[in-house]
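Risk register update: the risk of archive-format incompatibility is retired. Evidence:
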Amino acid sequence: MAKRNSFAQEAEEEDVNVTPLLDIVFIMLIFFIVTSTFVKEPGVEVERPEAVSATERKLASIIVAISDEDEIWINKEQVDLNEVRIAVEELRRENPKGTAVVQADAKAKSRLLVEVVTQIRATGISDVAVSTKDV
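Archived output:
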């Protein structure tokens, strides 16, 4: 009987407890999900105007597109000019520190671009950029 007890004790000592490892993996997963920012695509392709003085900008979380037919697109949905502020406020709740970028087509009316930027700034986002392509 003494042999059986020593064999059972050795088998118990060889087991590895992976519960702490799983806890750490799940905590890291939650951390990366919470701290990541997701870019919402506008939903339409635009032909951006060329600019010589363009600078690269990163971490834009709100992208608004204006098509060549003066349609406004946010998060793959077409919105009216009066709805831009509401849509941007919803996206801003997801990422309060995010910046906004407006992708206006080269054929879009500049008046509409100014009105869209004004609507975005009315939500409290002061850092609004207009997307261009390099020359």
